[in-house]
């Protein structure tokens, strides 16, 4: 241990103030910014003129609660720096499961434990900025925010040779000052998270696993606090197993961001306003589409309703890809809002994405205003998620519809209301894979529209391979619903 570090450990927290001054990190005035240090130790630079920190007026830095991507990857991140023994055990667990993670480290802890920080880098992980002292930056003035981020970056760079590119506060909270200071310092962004894995309560091991698997999402950022999480080491095997079961891999934040895209604002996407509220619905015309019985072709459409987790929907996508089948997905938009990357992944796999409402109401129970607002909101959420206009079909939840409701829906821009002629009630977990398969095989005809669901914990995934094989054995070709009924992208009939 060199003299600089001996000085720090001898004086404790006050020694940290002295250390920061010795290595040239100024702007300290008795270290009052960083808590109640030993006031008998004075920063030798305290009386020198300090650079003025002027609030930045440029563009705010980007914020990443997740990364917009359809790739099958996400990031595992850690906040803080626990004790030496715990940190090394954590690194061993990550090595065991071949996970490369991102560590958001506080600058003061890196000054205390530089060897641990260097070990993190040596093991192939990424180091980023967790601010100097993990204070609540939202309660500090701009100059203090700037110093907390800047000084931490300086210490991490000096001690490890790594210059952080991202910052995260202890809680993940941020405000405009944090974003502006981050941009002024030249960092690439503020990283939040899609899941903060807190201490478990009384959950069983299966419950813990299913909870984690639910949050394995494309572009997701999982956060664990190394100083507060009592089950820190136990979480790693479950995270590794869940990612493997879903079929995703963990990558460092910088790689996740590099692989991601930029989402255009809703207003810049063509067709975002194709659906608008319209009180004049009394004379609206509509088409209730159950199937295409007019076709002589042996074509049928597979359709999937509602929403599920990445585990379920990715399994469906994999099965469809294996059999080179394209389908139509009617999405519940409040699920899409929470996980837009999965909706984009459906589209990128070559399937059609359509509207299944925002909150999944029984449409006949809503007032005209409530119904139109729900569907318009769904259209906007789905459009922004997939970054293009969805297929212009609407399917009412539960399939319940009447004349007045159909007119209300048509008036906002959905004259084609997609129903179905083959339903298996697969949403009921009591209906087995064999039950699902048998109904489809017995009821499907030329032009049929088959209703299935993408919900978790039902038997659709088990039935789907046999369903596809059985239909193709009967000579059916599986197509998207818009193609089956001759609908173009704008919602009109193909000529």
Entry keywords:
17 strands, disordered N terminus, six-stranded parallel beta sheet, TIM Barrel, 3 domains, 17 helices, alpha/beta, 495 residues
Please sum up the structure shown:
This protein has 17 helices and 17 strands. With 495 residues, the chain is an alpha/beta fold.
Describe this structure in words.
With about 500 residues, the chain is α/β, with parallel strands linked by helices. The protein folds into three domains: about 1-50, no CATH class; about 60-260, Glycoside hydrolase/deacetylase (TIM Barrel, Alpha-Beta Barrel), CATH 3.20.20.370; about 270-485, TIM Barrel (Alpha-Beta Barrel). The chain is built from 17 helices and 17 strands. It has helices at about 5-20, 85-95, 105-110, 115-120, 140-160, 175-185, 205-215, 230-245, 255-260, 310-320, 335-340, 340-350, 370-385, 405-410, 435-445, 460-475, 480-485, and strands at about 60-65, 75-80, 100-105, 125-130, 165, 190, 195, 220-225, 250, 285-290, 300-305, 330, 350-355, 415-420, 420-425, 450-455, 475-480. Strands 2, 3, 4, 7, 8 and 9 form a six-stranded parallel sheet that branches. Strands 11, 12, 13, 15, 16 and 17 form a six-stranded parallel sheet that branches. A three-stranded parallel sheet has the order 1-6-5. Helix 2 packs parallel to helix 8, helix 7 crosses helix 8 and helix 12 (about 340-350) crosses helix 13 (about 370-385). The radius of gyration is 28 Å and the shape is elongated. The termini are far apart. About 45% of the residues are buried.
């Amino acid at each position: 241990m060199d003299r600089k570090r001996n000085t720090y450990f001898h004086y404790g927290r006050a020694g940290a103030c002295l250390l920061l001054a010795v290595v040239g990190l100024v702007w300290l005035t008795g270290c009052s910014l960083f808590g109640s240090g030993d006031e008998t130790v004075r920063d030798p630079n305290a009386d020198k003129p300090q650079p003025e920190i002027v609030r930045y007026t440029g563009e705010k830095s980007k914020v990443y609660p997740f990364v917009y991507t359809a790739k099958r990857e996400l990031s595992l991140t850690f906040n803080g720096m626990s004790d030496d023994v715990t940190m090394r055990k954590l690194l061993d667990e990550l090595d065991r499961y071949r996970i490369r993670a991102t560590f958001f480290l506080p600058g003061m802890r890196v000054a205390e434990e530089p060897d641990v920080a260097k070990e993190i880098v040596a093991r192939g992980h990424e180091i980023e900025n967790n601010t100097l002292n993990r204070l609540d930056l939202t309660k500090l003035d701009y100059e203090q925010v700037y110093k907390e981020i800047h000084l931490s970056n300086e210490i991490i760079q000096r001690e490890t040779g790594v210059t952080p590119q991202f910052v995260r506060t202890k809680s993940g909270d941020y405000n405009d000052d944090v974003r502006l200071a981050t941009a002024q310092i030249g960092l690439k962004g503020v990283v939040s998270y899609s899941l903060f894995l807190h201490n478990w309560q009384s959950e069983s091991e299966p419950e813990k696993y299913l909870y984690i698997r639910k949050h394995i999402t494309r572009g997701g950022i999982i956060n664990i606090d190394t100083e507060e999480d009592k089950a820190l080491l136990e979480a790693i095997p479950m995270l590794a197993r869940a990612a493997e079961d879903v079929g995703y891999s963990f990558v460092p934040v910088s790689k996740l961001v590099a692989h991601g895209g930029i989402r255009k604002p809703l207003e810049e996407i063509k067709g975002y306003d194709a659906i608008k509220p319209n009180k004049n619905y009394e004379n609206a015309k509509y088409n209730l589409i159950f199937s295409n019985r007019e076709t002589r072709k042996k074509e049928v459409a597979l359709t999937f309703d509602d929403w599920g987790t990445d585990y379920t929907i990715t399994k469906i996508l994999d099965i469809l890809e294996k059999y080179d089948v394209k389908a139509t997905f009617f999405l519940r938009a409040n699920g899409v809002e929470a996980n837009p990357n999965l909706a984009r992944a459906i589209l990128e796999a070559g399937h059609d994405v359509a509207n299944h409402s925002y909150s999944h109401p029984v449409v006949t129970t809503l007032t005209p205003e409530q119904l139109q607002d729900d569907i318009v909101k769904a259209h906007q959420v789905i459009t922004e998620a997939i970054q293009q206009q969805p297929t212009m079909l609407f399917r009412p939840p539960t399939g319940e519809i009447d004349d007045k409701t159909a007119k209300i829906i048509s008036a906002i821009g959905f004259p084609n209301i997609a129903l179905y002629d083959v339903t298996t009630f697969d949403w009921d977990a009591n209906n087995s894979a064999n039950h699902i398969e048998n109904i489809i095989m017995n009821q499907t005809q030329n032009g049929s529209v088959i209703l299935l669901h993408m919900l978790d914990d039902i038997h659709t995934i088990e039935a789907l391979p046999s369903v596809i094989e059985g239909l193709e054995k009967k000579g059916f070709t599986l197509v998207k619903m818009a193609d089956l009924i001759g609908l173009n992208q704008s919602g009109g009939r193909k000529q």
